[in-house]
Design the sequence.
């Protein structure tokens, strides 16, 4: 994972932009992986850990209507999380993640392993991606969410992904 984090940080640095994270089910793991790399302070602006709906509303400006209509684990929430993080930081790229890491909390519509990702780029569009990871435990789902978020960030920066074809 460190190599992926270094690639992401280098890609941001090469473009002169800072990154921000808005995390729910990963609980700050993306920011943690990035800030494990020495010198990351020149690229990482901040990270928002918005585990509760209240935190999503207060810290990122997610509308109560979005949460009521679509839930915390949804395309709409992931998009608003990324946009809210970008608007509330000095960053040029925002990564958001919201999902169900388990072992409980899943449903037929939103199973354990469902994660929505948002990527917002300053001056560009905001994209959302949906993944359903195999339910191999909470740690596995969270680790895969971190990996996927960094890969999506690299893709938004025009960098090739490193593990195409993985779940």
Sequence:
């Amino acid at each position: 994972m460190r190599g992926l984090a270094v690639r992401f940080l280098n890609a941001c640095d090469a473009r002169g932009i800072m990154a921000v994270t808005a995390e729910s089910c990963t609980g700050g793991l993306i920011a943690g992986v990035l800030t494990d790399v020495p010198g990351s302070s020149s690229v990482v602006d901040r990270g928002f850990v918005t585990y509760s709906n209240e935190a999503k509303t207060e810290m990122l400006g997610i509308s109560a209507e979005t949460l009521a209509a679509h839930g915390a684990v949804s395309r709409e929430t992931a998009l608003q999380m990324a946009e809210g993080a970008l608007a509330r930081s000095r960053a040029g790229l925002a990564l958001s993640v919201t999902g169900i890491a388990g072992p409980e909390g899943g449903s037929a519509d939103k199973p354990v392993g469902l994660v929505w990702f948002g990527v917002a780029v300053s001056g560009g569009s905001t994209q959302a991606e949906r993944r359903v990871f195999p339910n191999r435990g909470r740690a596995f789902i969270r680790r895969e969410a971190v990996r996927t978020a960094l890969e999506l960030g690299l893709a938004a920066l025009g960098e090739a992904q490193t593990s195409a074809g993985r779940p």
